[in-house]
Write a structure and sequence with these properties.
Low-confidence stretches: 206-238
Oligomer: single chain
Strand order of the largest sheet: 25-32-29-30-27-26-33
Number of strands: 33
Structural class: alpha+beta
Number of helices: 8
Strand content: 25-35%
Mean pLDDT: 89
Distance between the termini: 23 Å
Radius of gyration: 24 Å
């Protein structure tokens, strides 16, 4: 086993094969010490995320090495999850022909194999399943589909899996299931978790059997039926809290964000949350909220709202003209918005994102214990539109007396610190030096998922494909074109491009304020 750094808050434990990943993950998951935040198995690695304030790097390394040399605790067998399947996929016949067998035999082999969840990724609830009884290596489609319907069951390489929601995809589709693969409002939102045992159950005459078992216990005891479990899909539309603001114009893009969903990467769920966490904490403090209360993240300004009642607000982050009923007001200070008054946030003159905090905190429904909108996973409240009413909860603290709140105007050149990445050895020494020496330009491909940077090509010494492995916000992936992409809060939890370095957590928020054309410089990480 090789231990590789993934920034200053994670390690990547690399082993020889997927079987080694399953053994290591089982050992690690049996007894994680305090301070371990994430265990994310992938094709050849297990990402171990930790909190340096609660556990030292040396202790994490010792624990991982110890787990690698000990036999996994047999313990209680993982739960058996039964997935009802209609074997009616668009690629069933062609896939069988590729494998040199009849479609009926492909169905029989798929249903007879005892499957196990190796890891998750790609989308919340999307599981990669493997089986020692499955002998086939199925090639992906030469051109991925732009739309794969939710519930599609597919094959790719040695894996099988089912799509929890409609996404693009290149797997060969052999069937369809109605099982609730991802139910964000459920206490157990992901049906197929790492280590779970899975059996695919053919529906009679390719028609779903009412009440077919989907999860829990063993095959005799079954579990909740798919229809009942699917009732918890989606986000509740029940009104919460007290009306405070009515949106007149959301600007370019405005979403509800809190501090996100940390510690759920093993389920395929990104951290999400406010990109400028310091701006959110500051805005909440100014109106007497808890630091983690939900606010509104506004891209590039142009936001207008009217107060439904007397409401305290604060605006932090980027720089723009702020007005209440046409009267200029200050950012980074508590503002009383009388009932019927209009708050307007002008177009950003510097920086890219504003945070609007409302006293009491925005009371949008939660998904996985967070009110954050994840744009990649389509999780959480939808983006705000004109006419939406922002409701708030109860105020937790008094409005502070603020004479002066220190803040700085975001600059057009941002410097961020780097910590070592797990695949720095894939790049030439010159490329690693160039990463630090060059001035990089933010491209037009910049959003909550990540930022593509334009600049010199980072030359590799290794050119093969990298099996998917765990990712973190701040990871600098380098695709084949050689320019780095910085993953942000809504970025994927696994990826197949090598990570040359990782932006430190302390400086990551600065990238929330960059806009196309701005410049980025990296410091450290040799």
């Amino acid at each position: 086993m090789t231990l590789r750094p993934m920034g200053e808050r994670a390690l990547l434990a690399e082993v020889d094969d997927l079987a080694g990943v399953l053994r290591l993950h089982t050992s690690l998951a049996a007894h994680p010490p305090a301070g371990i935040d994430d265990l994310v198995p992938a094709a050849r690695t297990v990402l171990v995320g930790f909190d340096p304030a609660r556990i030292a790097l040396a202790a994490v390394r010792a624990w991982v090495l110890s787990a690698a040399t000990s036999a996994p605790d047999a313990g209680t067998p993982a739960a058996l999850v039964e997935i009802p399947v209609r074997y009616d996929g668009a690629d069933l016949d062609e896939t069988a022909a590729l494998l040199g067998i009849r479609p009926a035999e492909l169905v029989a082999r798929h249903a007879a194999a005892p499957w196990r969840v190796a890891f998750t990724g790609f989308a919340p609830g999307f599981a990669y399943l493997v089986s020692d009884a499955w002998p086939h290596d199925v090639p992906r489609l030469p051109q991925p589909r732009t739309r794969v319907p939710a519930g599609s069951v597919g094959l790719a390489g040695e894996f099988t899996g089912a799509y929890p929601r409609e996404t693009p995809g290149g797997w060969r589709l052999i069937g369809t299931t109605d099982a609730p693969l991802f139910a964000p409002d459920s206490p157990d939102p992901v049906l197929l978790t790492p280590g779970a045992r899975v059996r695919f159950v053919p529906s009679r005459s390719h028609v779903s059997a009412p009440g077919a078992p989907t999860a829990g216990g063993d095959s005799a005891s079954g579990g909740p039926d798919a229809a009942a479990a699917s009732s918890v899909r989606g986000i509740s539309s029940v009104a919460l809290g007290t009306p405070a603001l009515r949106v007149l114009a959301p600007g370019a893009f405005a979403t509800v964000q809190d501090l996100g969903r940390p510690g759920r990467a093993a389920l395929g769920v990104a951290r999400s949350g406010a990109l400028d966490r310091a701006a959110l904490r500051s805005a909440n403090r100014l109106v007497g909220n808890d630091p983690s209360a939900a606010g509104v993240e506004i891209v590039l300004g142009g936001f207008r709202a009217v107060a439904e009642r007397d409401t305290w607000v604060a605006v932090t982050g980027a720089l723009a003209d702020l007005h209440i009923d046409g009267r200029a007001v200050d950012a980074f200070t508590p503002l009383l918005l009388p009932a019927g008054a209009e708050l307007s946030i002008g177009i950003a003159r510097a920086g890219a994102r504003f945070v609007l905090a409302v006293r009491g905190g925005v009371a949008a429904p939660e998904a996985l214990e967070s009110r954050s909108t994840d744009v990649l996973a389509a999780l959480g409240p939808p983006a705000l539109r004109a006419g939406d009413v922002l409701r708030v909860g109860e105020a937790r603290h008094p409005i502070p007396a603020v004479d002066f709140f220190p803040w700085a105007v975001p600059g057009s050149t941002v410097e961020v610190d780097l910590a070592p990445g797990p695949r720095a050895d894939w790049f030439t020494p010159t490329a690693r030096q160039t990463l630090r020496d060059a001035t990089w330009t933010v491209s037009s491909d910049a959003d909550r998922v990540g930022i593509r940077l334009d600049g010199p090509e980072l030359e590799r010494v290794r050119h093969g494909e990298l099996p998917s492995e765990g990712m973190r916000p701040g990871a600098l992936q380098v695709p084949p074109h050689g320019r780095p992409v910085v993953l942000l809060a809504d970025g994927p939890v696994t990826g197949g491009y090598p990570v040359v370095a990782v932006v430190t957590d302390a400086t990551l928020d600065r990238l929330a304020q960059v806009r196309p054309g701005d410049q980025v410089r990296f410091r450290g990480s040799r």
